[in-house]
Design goal:
heterodimer, A: 3-stranded antiparallel sheet, 64% helix, 2% strand, elongated, disordered C terminus, B: 200 residues, alpha/beta, Rossmann fold, 6-stranded mixed sheet, 6 strands
Chain lengths: 662, 200
Amino acid sequence: MPPPPPPSKLCSTESASICREFADNWSHYKSLLETDSEQDILNVLNTLEAVRVKWQKSDAEARYYKEKLSKSEKNSNELKSAHERLNGKLLHCQATLDRVSKSKDAIADELKGYKIQWEKLRSILKDSDKAFVSDGLLAIINNVEKPSSSLNVTTRTRYRNEETQSTYDDGQSDIDYDNSGEVLLDVSQEDVTSAAAPSHRRSNRKRPSTSAQTPKLSHSTFSFDDVEATPSKRSRNIEDTEVPAIVRTKKSSKRKPPPCILQSMKRSLSESNLIDAKDETIPIKPKAHTPHLNASKNTFDFSSPMVSSWTYGQEIDRRTHRVKVFNTVFETCDVCTKRFGITATNSLKCVDCNIRFHRHCQSRAPMPCVPKVPMPKTPSKQKCPLAQYCPETHPFIPPLIIHCIVALERDRLNSEGIYRLTSNAEIVGKLYQEFLTQRKIPILSSVETENITGCIKKFLKELRDSLIPSTSFEQFIHAIESNDEQQIITCVFELPAPNRDTLAYFILHLQKVSQHSQTNKMPIENLATVLAPTIIEYPALVTLENVEKLNRNQVMILLRLLKLPTGFWKTFLDSNMDTEFSTTRSILSETQTIGSTPILSSLTPTKPSKRGRRSVISNILDLQSDYSTSKTSVNSSPVTPIIQPLSNALKGMRRISFKAAI
Amino acid sequence: MAKKQYDLLFKLLLIGDSGVGKTCILYRFSDDAFNTTFISTIGIDFKIKTIELKGKKIKLQIWDTAGQERFHTITTSYYRGAMGIMLVYDITNARSFENIAKWLRNIDEHASEDVVKMLLGNKCDMTDRRVISKERGEKIAIDHQIRFLETSAKSNINIDKAFYDLAEAILDKMPSQSSTNSMSIRPVEQESNKPQGGCC
């Protein structure tokens, strides 16, 4: 409703205009109010909202694209690196290819050379003694021909595997070539023994690989020795052949005996043929056994292939009792000294050392268990030989010695002047008697160190013959004066089994004692001085004139024995003689002290007739070490089968040589 | 003077358990040296030293035996020629003292009747490890009527005195020397820490 017009009184032009203006405004305002501006605003808002949503969407989109971008960037990076890698590979491949082609060329050249040589030789052969050798040799040459080319390839590839140097191949092929030439020369010069030079060895080294890869070849080469007997068995085409085969032909046509033996030895060894190695050892075995045992002047028969040792694989100083239930009422327990009583199942007895104890005392039973040896029954005033104090099976060590040494090693190795200080004769005598006569072993924990060592000394002194008997004295002295380790070892081996085992056990103990020389002041020199007269018997007659020299010799012997490696002495305890023959050798070569002469070479006899063998052995040794060094790089199958038979053959050789030495 | 460089030759013998210091005593006396290494004697060894006593030059030939039981058979063969025997024990080792009786028995068995004996308790410098008192040593010496001294080769205590005393006793016993000399064995007077007489 419009406002009432202002009173006329007040109406002037001015006010009228103002009024009009106001009315206009008012109407305008009214019109404005009437139009739906609300709708407009809503529209605006809607638009705003839409814009906002759109903006958000685009924002998300942008982010998504950004992500995509980074991803693709990464991808591209990866691709780039892969590309680089591949590029590198490509280059490498190219290089390898180059190398391969180069080596192929080299081989081709070599082959050509061989062919030329072959042609030459064939012509020579044809010209010279066609009449004699003709068929058989040609047949063999024929046989060899095919694999021979493969031989070259195989050896070469093997070398490539070992050392990836393309240049090496060429040099290698040269060496190979020269090498066989050298062999040829050597043979023609009739100087076979000196042919075992390093160069020769290398040619030797190659052969096994061929024999492994192409067994046929090795076989044919091997049967070569009986060429004359069966000349024309195989006759095929002749084209070209291997150089070793040529060597052979020349030789058999000229002179056979020594080189043939040598070569055949080598061959049989390099051949991966286990049977061969065995064939060589078997016939020799009994021979080896008898002289040794004859040397042991013994009333006991230790020769029979032993019943297993009483240690049952346990260490001597830790051997446990083997108990069984035993029924008694009146006897007393050896551990707690109480009666067993009526509860008979309570009592146990060790079948070896005869100790008796309650079931619950078992954990406290004295250790170790050493089979009881009955007191030797001999006419009075007569000393017993060591064998009678020993168990019936390996290792032949008297229980007294074991118990005393175990007690000493438990906690007394540091006592000053051990083995030197004088004991109390009475206590020692009592202890000694107890050990030998009583079922229960004396408890040594309360006995003074001097008396335990005194007991050991007394035992050794009371033997009919010392550990190293008078009959061996000269032999030992001789061996030591010539400073020949091999001879000393032989001397030890020739001792009777009980003496040897006991000596080994005792010396191992003394070596332990000397390790504590800082505290006990008993280095091996001192121990040798103190114990030499106990361990080593005087040879025959002792006079005031020679006694000094004899004493010094005794000390010298013991000192030298104490210096032998621990591993050597351990073998005697670990294994019986049967196995010792083979194992001791290897152990010796392992535990050998630096500076002394190589044992293996010294083990082989010095007889000239065996020279060849020795060189073979050393060759084989080198060969083997070669293999072991290259083993890591060459893991192709052909290598492994060779190594084993080789070592077998080697063992066989060792046996042979050792026997000969005895 | 005479052609010979000495007037009399005395053979002395050192015996006792192993490790008591027989060799050390001998080295101290002959070379005035002491070696701490612990080395056993092989069999038997001897040293010579000439001393002057009562205006006479006396050559002492001193035999040093190994204490090892196993050597006893050898060493006992040297007893007979000996004019004086020094029996050594170790004051830090009871066993060596206990064995004196055994050694004395040995002497009775193998040595000549009129041999002059002397008991030495060696290592007397090691007071902290002493197990045999001086009184016990003196007592056993009186029981067996032999001379007694406590010595130390390491600190050079009574070493020279022991040898001089023994030489003097032998000299006194010599029939030609002094017929009036009584055969009675007198206990040793208090020993002084200073060695008596100079050595040449």
